[in-house]
Each structure stands twice: as structure tokens, then as C-alpha cells.
Write a structure and sequence with these properties.
The structure is a homodimer of 231-residue chains.
Chain A lengths: L17 H8 L4 E6 L6 H14 L4 E5 H8 L3 H8 L3 H7 L5 H20 L3 E5 L5 H12 L8 E6 L3 H7 L4 H10 L21 E3 L6 H14 L6
Helix pairs in contact in A: 2-10, 4-5, 6-7
Chain lengths: 231, 231
């Protein structure tokens, strides 16, 4: 194994350009922002899409509750238990489900997705993200990116609430209906908190009508049409 | 341009594995955590290393003040001005320079670097990160990663403070010394706030002794030795 020598190192002043990253990864980055009710199939579509993109040679990464809600956007309790935060510190930085907490949750996710897309990956976010204002702010973060605007693609998973509630994979609708009946609302999207549907989604899916394969094909064809992935 | 059909889509249950990502990117991810005083040359080394990694076919991404302090970890003022946050909301989520704010700053950066490394990239972070406890917490986040431990490499840029202060590219030492002389400390690392040097850095650099090329070669050779990049 030969040693790499300083005389073999060449670099230019300034940051790596988007073009240099695109050349290596054979794609320019983008963010696919999935939004829809709990149980709509967002994460199923998102995770399958990530797999298929990677199979096809396109680096991609899903940001979802699994890797965000226990880490970057952990709640106060998790910050105390896993990071040793003092209670007041955990209450200040930890995110729960009030409107301002939801806004900050989506803001941070928007910022991180932008960094992934700036690095050249296809970032795929999968969060209910019920408020139009917060999704618009995430789009704006991408458009105002310092190294140039980044494509932000809103994918609305418009599965009817009846289907979502029938599936109820985590039993959350049941819990929310019971809480509401008992007079103590949970602020659960679609039950006692609004879901503001996108007005101009770039792609719309519906898990009551489409298979996972159908949904992935629809998004892929959209990306091909936009020139963001190879046909 | 032929349409991609649903019958051409194949996916497996569950998340993409680290192995699948490594196969595509020809590397397993890792985080290189640069730490050192203001003016020590951290960012110069980090940005040059990123360039050289990308030249050599290794996807990499620098997280530093430029892309973090105005975005994910913006201060209260920026949150008000660019995101329209209400004052109390901005004060709660915005990060300034108190000890708990610095801790949360490093925690979030540790979480984001971990996500990049989990995606298969070489994340290169460049922050003073003066407190040992906070750097250890960032390491722990990588070791406890749900999809398996992620290599966390601490790079200590141990440039003597005299050199850092002579360079003072942003005029910060001058400002901090003047503030201190006037009796109103800024809590500036190395002047009136401690820098806790790493006890067991994986790599140590010194910009007063090494050129940028020297430093990059040292880190690259370390990565080759660890099997994280090709020779």
C-alpha cells in the first residue's frame, strides 16, 4: 500500500461546486417532499422509491420519523434520557406537537434536506407536514439556497382519510377518536387538527388506487421528465 | 424517452441497508470531526480535504459555520428575519453562544453528520467545538446509530494560539481582547472561554508546521489505513 504524498494533492481555492458534485454522483440533487395524512402510505412510497433510486445508481436518502424524531428533533424526554440534558434545556430545545414545535420540526427537516440535496443526493422526506405555510417555508429554504436554487418537489399522498383510518397501522386514529370522545383532544391531524392539502403539488399519489410499484413509477417518470434522473 | 412501468419496479420490504449504499458509493460512510481554535486552519483543511476526496471519487460534504449557522442552527435574529418566527419562538429555538446553546449546536451537528455518514457519505464537520463533553456526545451519537456504529474520527487541529491570533482572519481575537480589556468578556474560546483539547485525537494537525497539502495527505493516509477510502 503506497503512501499518498503531499505533492500528489491538488486543490483550488473556494468550496466544491455543485457541478463537481454532480459529475461524481451523476445527478444534481433534489428534495422530494412527501406530505399526507398518517396512514396514507407516505413512508411506504418513500422507502420503496429510495431503494429503487439506489438500484438505478442514484444516491438517495430518506428522512422520516425513524431517523429524525429520536435524533435531531427529539422530544424533551429523549433529550434528558439519551443526552443528559437538564430539564429546562430539554424543554427549550426538545420538540413536541404544538403548532410552533411542528413549525420548528419542519424547518429543521427542510434545512437538513437542503443540505443533502446540496451535497448532490436525492433527499426524500416523509412527514405529515400538515400546514401549508410550513411546507412553503421548506420550499423557500431550497429556493434561497446559497449555492443556487435546489429543486423541491412536493409529493402529495392524497389517500382518502377513510382508507387511512381503516389501515391505522399504529392505532393512532383509534386513540385520537377515543381521546376526542373523552373530551381531551390530542391535536391529531385529520381528527382534531387540520390537514391543509397542497394547492399545487408537483406529484399526487393515492394508496387506495395505486400499488407501491405504481406510485414509485409515477415519481420516477416525473424525475426523468424533469431531467433529475436518467431514463 | 420510454416510460418506466410499474412492472419494472422491484423492491424489498424494509429499509435500504448500509451495504446497498456502500455498494453504490464505493465506500462506507464516516464522520471526520475537525476541532480546534478559531483561526487554527480547520476549515481550510476541511474544505481542501472535501475537494480531494471528491476528486478521488469519494462523495463527501463539509458542515461548517457557512451552511449551519445561517440555516439549521441559526440565531434568534436570523429566525425572525428570514423565517418570520415570533420573538419568543425565535428565542426558544435560535442558538446563541451560551454553554447550553453551544451544547445544542454541537448535538444537532452531530446528529446531521451521522445522517450523512449513514447515507454513505464522508461527513466533514468544522467547528471549534471546544468542550470535550460535547464532542464525546457527538461520538456517542455515531456509535449508537440504529443501523450500526459509524466511524467517528476526531481531527484535532492543534495550531498554537499565538499563530491563530496572528492570523485572526475574521478579527475576532482582536475584538475579544478589546472586550476583555474593557471588562465585558465575549466568552471567546482561547481568550475568556476554555478550549478543552482532545485527549485521544485520531489525527492531529498543526497549520504552523504543515501546508494544506500536508494536512490533507495525513488525513487521507489515515482514512486509507482504516479502510475507509481506496489507496
Amino acid at each position: 500500500m503506497s503512501e499518498i504524498k503531499a505533492t500528489q494533492i491538488f486543490y483550488h481555492a473556494g468550496a466544491v461546486t455543485r457541478e463537481e458534485r454532480a459529475k461524481l454522483l451523476k445527478q444534481t440533487g433534489a428534495t422530494l417532499w412527501f406530505t399526507g395524512l398518517s396512514g396514507s402510505g407516505k413512508s411506504t412510497f418513500a422507502v420503496a422509491l429510495e431503494q429503487v433510486l439506489i438500484q438505478r445508481g442514484h444516491p438517495a436518502y430518506v428522512l422520516d420519523g425513524d431517523n429524525i424524531r429520536f435524533g435531531l428533533n427529539a422530544g424533551p424526554k429523549i433529550l434528558v434520557e439519551t443526552r443528559g440534558y437538564a430539564d429546562d434545556q430539554a424543554k427549550r430545545f426538545g420538540l413536541a406537537f404544538s403548532a410552533v414545535d411542528r413549525e420548528e420540526n419542519i424547518r429543521r427537516i427542510g434545512e437538513v434536506a437542503k443540505l443533502f440535496a446540496d451535497a448532490g443526493l436525492i433527499a426524500v422526506t416523509s412527514f405529515i407536514s400538515p400546514y401549508r405555510k410550513d411546507r412553503d417555508a421548506a420550499r423557500q429554504i431550497h429556493e434561497a439556497n446559497k449555492t443556487g436554487a435546489i429543486p423541491f418537489i412536493e409529493v402529495y399522498v392524497n389517500t382518502p382519510i377513510e382508507t387511512c383510518e381503516q389501515r391505522d397501522p399504529k392505532g393512532l386514529y383509534k386513540q385520537a377518536r377515543e381521546a376526542l370522545a373523552a373530551g381531551k383532544g390530542m391535536g391529531f391531524t385529520g381528527v382534531d387538527d387540520p390537514y391543509e392539502a397542497p394547492l399545487n403539488a408537483d406529484v399526487t399519489l393515492d394508496a387506495s388506487k395505486q400499488s407501491v410499484e405504481d406510485g414509485v413509477a409515477i415519481v420516477l417518470n416525473y424525475l426523468v421528465k424533469r431531467g433529475l434522473v436518467a431514463a
